[in-house]
Each structure stands twice: as C-alpha cells, then as structure tokens.
Write a structure and sequence with these properties.
The chain has 132 residues and is of the alpha+beta class. The chain has three helices and eight strands.
Length: 132
C-alpha cells in the first residue's frame, strides 16, 4: 500500500521539563503524516469537508520505544494499511536521524457524511487515486 514520509524538527514547546517530546504530541505528528499522505495523493481534508465528508479518528494506538528531544529531526513514515471501506487505516513508524525506531502507531478513521452525521463509504475519487 502507498507510503509517504515527512520530516519534522521537534520544537521546544513540544517537549517536557526533561527536554523530551511530551507523549501527547505524537498524535499531532501522526496527523501531520496523514495529512501529507493525503495531500501527496491529491486530496486535502479541506476539500473532503467541502464535499461533505469528515474523517474523525476513532482509534489510536501508539507504542513508544525511544524518546525524541528538542531540535531532533524525526521522520514520520505513513502507510495505508488496506483499501478503505467506510474506514481508512494507517500504520506509522517514527524514526530519528540515526534510523532508530522511536514510535510505532496505528490509527483508524471513519468517513462521516456531514449531512447525516453517519458513517459512509470512502469517496470514489479517493479510491481511484489510491488504485491509480
């Protein structure tokens, strides 16, 4: 399945008093990876919402292996787990500049029709881009 990678430099405000990334900020890094994965595919969250589809996270699983610290450059690899249905699933691997795995994660998001506020199938334009 399609893979994308982005690099992020850890900012001071993302760290705790010990100088390591606060655990809650990893969810933001995953979101950044997911947004760029979609953008490089040719889709944005904004355009999906303009077309009446929301994509909330319904499941988040993070496994912390090593710490990242202030000013570290981390690599967020985002991979589609399987072809989307009414949900879309991603796997992630966050590594440091040495290539050491810092974090692995998985998210599940659900396509929601904004008019009905109910789950719906993945938009056909998204499926076409994934398969193309």
């Amino acid at each position: 399945m399609k893979i994308d990678e982005i690099q992020i430099r850890v900012r001071y405000g993302e760290t705790d008093q010990m100088g390591v990334v606060y655990h809650g900020n990893y969810a933001l890094y995953l979101e950044m990876g997911r947004i760029e994965w979609l953008r490089k595919l040719g889709v944005s969250y904004k355009s999906m919402e303009e077309n009446g589809i929301m994509l909330p996270v319904v499941s988040l699983n993070i496994n912390y292996k090593k710490s990242a610290g202030y000013d570290d450059v981390i690599n967020v690899k985002t991979q589609l787990k399987r072809t989307p249905t009414a949900k879309i699933e991603f796997e992630y691997e966050i590594t440091n500049e040495k290539g050491e795995i810092l974090t692995t994660a998985e998210t599940v998001l659900v396509f929601i029709d904004m008019k009905t506020n109910r789950p719906t199938r993945a938009p056909q334009y998204l499926l076409d881009l994934i398969e193309g």
